[in-house]
Amino acid sequence: MVRVGFGFDVHRLVEGRELWLGGVLIPHTVGALGHSDADVLLHALCDALLGAAALGDIGQHFPDTDMRWKGADSKVLLREVVRIIGEHGWKVGNVDCTLILERPKIMPHVSAMRAVLAPLLGVDQDAVSIKATTNEKMGFVGREEGVAAHAVALITRA
Ligand code: MG
Description:
By secondary structure, this protein is of the alpha+beta class. It has a single domain, classed as CATH 3.30.1330.50. It is built from five helices and seven strands; from the N terminus they run ββββαααβαβαβ. It has helices at about 40-50, 60, 75-85, 110-120, 140, and strands at about 1-15, 20, 25, 30, 90-100, 130-135, 145-155. The chain has a five-stranded mixed beta sheet. The longest helix is centred in the middle third of the chain and has 14 residues, at about 75-85. The N and C termini lie close together (about 10 Å). The structure holds magnesium ion. Magnesium ion binds next to strand 1 and helix 1.
């Protein structure tokens, strides 16, 4: 038995914050604003996994009113999501993510992201796809006011 899920997230880009994407710290002039480390790719991925298992969303499991998650490393949230779906009898099959931002170039960081995410998801690196595109300078992403991510995840019966 297999299920598929989809996730989407957006964070504002501001000065004075670190830019965490896909569990990796990316050197840049601005960073993503949020209650946790604001890793937009991991948040989209958490929602895709929860969605596949029909177990709600990241905001339900990790409310931004909960001080436990203030400044949280989103890798901890992802590990918790994998544990939650595991409790319901699911394991990760594969994931496919797309980041949308104008700068910086993401390709040089993709192998590091896959290496970080594969063990958290309990899959081989070839089951972790990370892609990136710009928004062709249009809209809030194009103006570099924010960063967005989409993710799909396939889960299978453990
Ligand atoms: Mg988020």
